[in-house]
Automatic annotation (TrEMBL):
GO-annotated molecular function: iron ion binding; iron-sulfur cluster binding
Annotated NIF system FeS cluster assembly NifU N-terminal domain residues: 19-97
Organism listed in the record: Sinimarinibacterium flocculans
GO biological process, one term: iron-sulfur cluster assembly
Protein name as annotated: Nitrogen fixation NifU-like protein
CDD domains the record matches: IscU_like
Pfam family, one: NifU_N
InterPro entries, A to Z: NIF_FeS_clus_asmbl_NifU_N
């Protein structure tokens, strides 16, 4: 499998590049979640990408998260990283992360520094054509949370 064009500009030795490739090739939490209590989805009509997110919420904590997608590798890697980051966190924190991440991508919010787990996505943030790819799973998560 050759590298996708979105990943070619970064040097292969860059650990962020390697992390993007790893999440795109072996996404975490990409599965069905039969016991889900919440569902959300998002789609990009321009390219046909779609993401659905399933959650198990217990009280005010996100106990489990999974996603299914038909998308590009950027969207898949972002969804995979997102699920690892938000799993087990309080819902208020998850909502804040969703809002902060989406603002960081769309507006280049310099006041917010993404958690280390999301640092690889900074390689793609400067490419406005990839903004929707980066945020689609996060929009599906926000939809699931209501």
């Amino acid at each position: 499998m050759s590298a996708q064009p979105f990943l070619r500009p970064a040097p292969a030795a860059d650990p962020r590049h390697a992390a993007l490739l790893e999440h795109a090739r072996h996404p975490r939490n990409r599965r069905d979640l039969d016991a889900a209590t919440h569902h959300g989805s998002g789609s990009n009509a321009l390219c046909g990408d779609s993401v659905s997110v399933s959650l198990v919420v217990d009280g005010d904590v996100l106990r489990e998260i999974a996603f299914k997608e038909r998308s590009c590798n950027v969207c898949k890697a972002s969804a995979s990283m997102m699920t690892e980051l938000v799993h087990g966190r309080p819902l208020a924190e998850v909502r804040a992360l969703c809002a902060d991440f989406r603002r960081w991508v769309a507006e280049g919010d310099a006041a917010w520094t993404p958690p280390d787990a999301l640092a690889p996505l900074a390689l793609l943030r400067e490419r406005s054509a990839r903004h929707r790819c980066l945020t689609l799973a996060w929009e599906a998560l926000a939809d699931a949370l209501g």
